[in-house]
Amino acid sequence: MTELRLVAGVDCSTQATKVLVCDAETGAVVREGRAPHPDATQVDPAEWWKAWETASDGLLDGVQAIAVGGQQHGMVLLDEAGEVVHPAVLWNDTSSADATTELIAELGGPEAWAEAIGSVPVPSFTVTKLRWLRDEAARSAAGGVAAGGDAAAMRREAARRAAAVVLPHDWMTHRLAADRSGIAGITTDRGDASGTGWWSPTTNDYRTDLVELAFGRQLALPRVAGPAEVVGETAFGAVIAAGTGDNAAAALGLDLQPGDVAVSLGTSGTAFARCAHPTKDASGLVAAFADATGEYLPLVCTLNAARVMSATAHLLGLELSAFDEAAITSSGSDGLVLLPFLDGERTPDLPHSTGLIYGLTRATMQPATMARAAVEGLLCGLADAVDALRDQGVPVQRVLLLGGGARSRAVQALAPALLGAEIVLPEPAEYVALGAARQAAWALSGAATPPTWQVPLGKPEPAITVDAATIRANYSQVLTSTRPLLSTPYPSPGSGQ
Ligand SMILES: Nc1ncnc2c1ncn2[C@@H]1O[C@H](COP(=O)(O)OP(=O)(O)O)[C@@H](O)[C@H]1O
Ligand SMILES: O=C(CO)[C@@H](O)[C@H](O)COP(=O)(O)O
């Protein structure tokens, strides 16, 4: 019997680290582990390392190659010695909303950014976080040494000491290498570099002038490794592949084909497709990301997806399974509209917004109606995302549902009508970690293309017939008419809170 060649894929996501050990030939998962991350938008990267150690404990025997897929955009600042100088500021931290507005204006508006990097930055993009830190440090310095207390002092010190800026997967990849010293030799890949705001998909290169624009000085940036490159070796003797951003890793795990759009319901909601050419969207809806194979990955991202369901379930005092049952058996939302912007929102660009419920009557103020409205609200946001991809010329033949939220039967049943496409449900699996494992197998093989791994399909819940046009029109009307309110910081100044 031939011995299995094993590879590992890691997903360092917002909520958890997940590790899969797979057969390099077939992709069959032979071992898996996971460990949670702190529920915060600024996190010490040491927490990711701790989670990785817990999640991978006892799994790594015989693993010959490894790669990391990571939540995109998070700003990890390092000093010359490679020490972290500030908690990583994650993609879902909206502190940089004002910095984003300023940066967009300073370069000459949304069109200038679309020309430079294919996308218009939102507060998720790393470039805006750099500007935020610079401004915070300057503000507290101007206010005197003690201004702002410990947090402000830390930011001043971080801005002074920062020598390099990297992303979560870059940091984890470097940390895995047995032979590393300071910031020398840190790598990233096109997929993750494309979410920084200082990498151009058209020139395939960094725009270091945009780092300077944001931070006022240059920082070292990781070398962009090739899709199948070996970038190091771990202490346990496995080769390390380049790794990538989590959505690019999921695209690789799913082996997306033309006409396929992946819709992921994790902490974020994302809709993305593989594409042979870069996109350029000055409206700011579609981000011009790169994929992990040398192509492109136009993507729309919302800040609120799976947690809309867990938060509503919590409100209703229901377990997730009971919430799901309530949403699916409800006779309908009857005009109850939930705008699901519980953590602010990125698409549409409303970083200061909160959630909103419209249409409460004695008839609609029922748990099952509320559960249905929550699922419809998050799907309406994702339907707008899929439409934005269509507007960029991305063909949408089938939608592949993934992420923790895709386990919801109500999501599966309502998605065909609301997303307006055939729904395919890949067998529930950790597709980011699987894609990272496939990249590791590719790097290990030295082949020109990634190995062929089958993606088993599950059977989605039967579709529920709903009046999708009316549900989407109601959602859109509530959003349009409350937009001025949702654009204002909440609680509003002077509210006494
Ligand atoms: N059956 C379900 N119904 C709704 N949400 C679910 C279900 N199972 C898991 N989730 C949610 O999925 C989320 C985790 O999804 P995941 O894709 O792992 O997120 P991330 O990659 O952001 O860490 C959690 O918020 C969890 O509550
Ligand atoms: O910001 C984006 C994409 O642009 C998010 O998709 C993050 O990459 C986080 O992903 P999850 O942890 O929700 O999977």
Automatic annotation (TrEMBL):
Carbohydrate kinase FGGY N-terminal domain: residues covered: 7-251
Keyword Nucleotide-binding: yes
Superkingdom of origin organism: Bacteria
Keywords assigned: ATP-binding, Carbohydrate metabolism, Kinase, Nucleotide-binding, Transferase, Xylose metabolism
Pfam families listed in its UniProt record: FGGY_C, FGGY_N
Residues annotated as catalytic: 246
Carbohydrate kinase FGGY C-terminal domain residues: 262-444
UniProt family annotation: Belongs to the FGGY kinase family.
Protein name in UniProt: Xylulose kinase
Organism: Kribbella hippodromi
Taxonomic path: Bacteria, Bacillati, Actinomycetota, Actinomycetes, Propionibacteriales
